[in-house]
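From the pipeline queue, job 12 of 40. The input is one protein chain; the requested action is below.

Action: predict structure.
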Amino acid sequence: MKAVHMTAVGDPGVLKVVDMPVPVPGDGEVQVQLHAAGVNPIDTKLRSRGVFFENALPAVLGCDGAGMVAAVGRNVSSLKPGDEVWFCNGGLGREQGNYAEFTVVNARLARKKPASLDFQRAAAAPLVLITAWEALFDRAGLERGQRVLIHGGTGGVGHVAIQLAAHAGAQVCTTVGSDANAQFASSIGAERVINYRKENVVDAVLDWTGGRGVDVALDIMGGQVFQDTVRAMAHYGSLITLLDPGTGIVWKEARNRNLRIGFELMLTPMLENLPDARIHQADILDRCAALFDAGKLSIEVSQSLPLEQAARAHAQIETGHTHGKLVLIP
């Protein structure tokens, strides 16, 4: 089969198309013929900084995949050949990722693809859906009627987080960097959209909340954005970040407000081999599938590229201005 190898740590040029054997499903696994693979910022970071496991190169990147079950291993009853599935699995340097024509997945983690999504949109969704769901509901405990600030509302995580929060009955404020992105964010459920190039984000949030601040904030930037967001929080609020806030953070204001600070790294169950947590994440996909099929959730794919153009996809993501998601087509 064709696959893309990360041959070394470096720029996008280290991604090379190779031929490799088709993986065979083991006990409890299914073999999936991949129809699409999602490309995420974590892929570019692993390529430029190194994968999580030693002596793992060459490696096949790509955590997100969607395709059709081609064969099943022993003791698999939940899926059969021909079933259409989506999942978040592999791509961190231990298990094979999804920049390939075939892969194998534990049958408990590969879930039925939403009928309303084509393979490309299904492959774009798992990592960002799980990240947004865990951050908003598992970490922050978002409730109906609360006000939430979501940074980067047109990015992969941001645009699904807006929709999940709005569906849960929260009032949503988000930040964007252009008027076109502001229109998109409004169309998917953001009540207040702040163009950070034109407005002071903290002042705008406080104005929107009558000076109270938001109950929940989702930070995808870290550093100064994280520090500034503290001042946009309501007392006893929850501030969840996807990144290391960085050094030099002054915690006095967060402490004075009795904030709950949380971290969301949806890769932890894969990295630490936590079976129950991985099943929980697969269950999140089932819940999101129902929302997709009910017309209450959408996923934005900005571009689909052939598998052979994985390096181009990485270069585009590293500009930092990708709208929605990118996918690769084997």
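Job complete. Residues 7 and 117 are 33 Å apart (CA to CA).
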